[in-house]
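Discrete fold record:
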Amino acid sequence: MIRNPKASQDSASPEVMVYIVDDDADLRDALSNLFRSVGLPVGVFGSATEFMESQLAEVPSCLVLDIRLPGVSGLDFQTQLIRAGIGMPIVFMTGHADVPMSVRAMKAGAIDFLTKPFRDQDMLDAVYSAIEVDRKRRQADADVAGLNELYDSLTKREREVMQLVTRGLMNKQIAGELGLSEITVKIHRGNVMRKMAVRSVADLVRAAERLEIGSTQD
């Protein structure tokens, strides 16, 4: 969890989290009250530096970020987060929006770009959308991590067989490619299907695609 929040958190172990980064204390307080009023835990910061020095909750989250910040602009901070591998969805706020600014933010993955003053419901809608996006991203990441664990359990030969199976080769063709008997290929193929927890070649192909396994990879 956040070590040094500038505003209250509503639970020691929240299921979701909303982070606010804005140098306007009044707006931070107003947004904190808004989010807490609908049961959303909040962590609040006055600068990008404070946010980056925090330990973030490993739960579906979103960042409500002001475009104009002390030290670094919101757009530049968005770039820093991307480079740091922090994929948290962002809802931008600004009092001085322009088209190029909003286009840049959205192209970089922002969920919404709200111009001050904005309606409370518009902010809540944007935050709920952002949290759902992050929930799906985290689930996809977890699924891939699970597939990687399964793939790591394969022997080198089983990986070779898997790659050839996902290329559409039949057992006899795989045997010729690898210099094995067809019976041996069937055994390896069965091991691959079992260890990768799939029931069909189509499922195995989808798993290989998610793992970005190429036909030449060991």
Observations:
- Residues 17-144 form a domain with the Rossmann fold fold (CATH 3.40.50.2300).
- The first helix runs from residue 25 to 37.
- The two ends are 39 Å apart (CA to CA).
